[in-house]
Amino acid sequence: MVVLVSRSGRHLQRYNKGRRQVVGCIPYRYKDNFDLSMGDEDAFEVLLISPQRKGKGLLFPKGGWEKDETIEVAARRETIEEAGVCGDIEGKLGTWYFENKNGDTAYEGHMFPLFVKEELDLWPEKDIRERFWMSVQEARKLCQQGWMKEALEMLVSRLTSQCRRTKIDLFSRINRGSSGHGTVLRLGCRAQVLTPPPPPSPAEEA
């Protein structure tokens, strides 16, 4: 069950050496029309949201990491609250140190990839935020926070590396096939090669 109310208050907020600890996710998914001829970066898209306070640019979901939750639970919660998507949290992209625009608050930010499996029709901040699926190239232009752009590049590097390994494996398996042919399912970097069915036996032909 997804709670349709965002957490409020900062009495449980975590700090590290005076820096407020925040955590978030870069939600991503593979494109339905992905094939092996596409550029690795074009195989997937990411989800950005509008800021709570109206302004220029977009951002990835993030918020405070609280004392009664693990860092992964906090990342998943913030992503549901702000972007209304659920999925698998993957290995952390990194830790960033930054300040707000006024320079009077210091932060320690942690970002994770989230492979999206479900988009909710209702979520806690539906009425104050919009969400947008877009290409990596578009996200680079529209993301308003520098540290999030760095996290995006970390994700791109990781996923494109996985795509290249997948392509090499797919082509290798096709070339090793006894018939020299195979069928590639277009499932992004989770693609599979299906070997052709065996030839019918003499009994089946009869």
Properties at a glance:
206 residues, alpha+beta, Nucleoside Triphosphate Pyrophosphohydrolase, eight-stranded mixed sheet, two-stranded antiparallel sheet, 4 helices, globular, pyrophosphatase activity, Nudix hydrolase domain-containing protein, manganese
CATH superfamily: Nucleoside Triphosphate Pyrophosphohydrolase
Give the C-alpha Rg: 21 Å
Separation of termini?
57 Å
Low-confidence sequence ranges: 178-197
> In what range is the share of β-strand residues?
25-35%
The helicity comes to: 25-40%
- Name of the CATH class: Alpha Beta
Count of β-strands:
10
If helices are DSSP runs of H or I spanning 4 or more residues, what is the number of helices? 4
Largest sheet: 8 strands, mixed
CATH architecture: Alpha-Beta Complex
**What is the overall silhouette?**
globular
Q: What class would the helix/strand composition place it in?
A: alpha+beta
String of helices and strands: EEEEHEEEEHHEEH
Question: How many structural domains can be distinguished in the coordinates?
Answer: 1
CATH topology, which one? Nucleoside Triphosphate Pyrophosphohydrolase
Mean pLDDT: 82
Family: Belongs to the Nudix hydrolase family.
Organism: Solanum lycopersicum (Tomato)
InterPro entries: DDP-like_NUDIX (IPR047198), NUDIX_hydrolase-like_dom_sf (IPR015797), NUDIX_hydrolase_CS (IPR020084), NUDIX_hydrolase_dom (IPR000086)
Protein name: Nudix hydrolase domain-containing protein
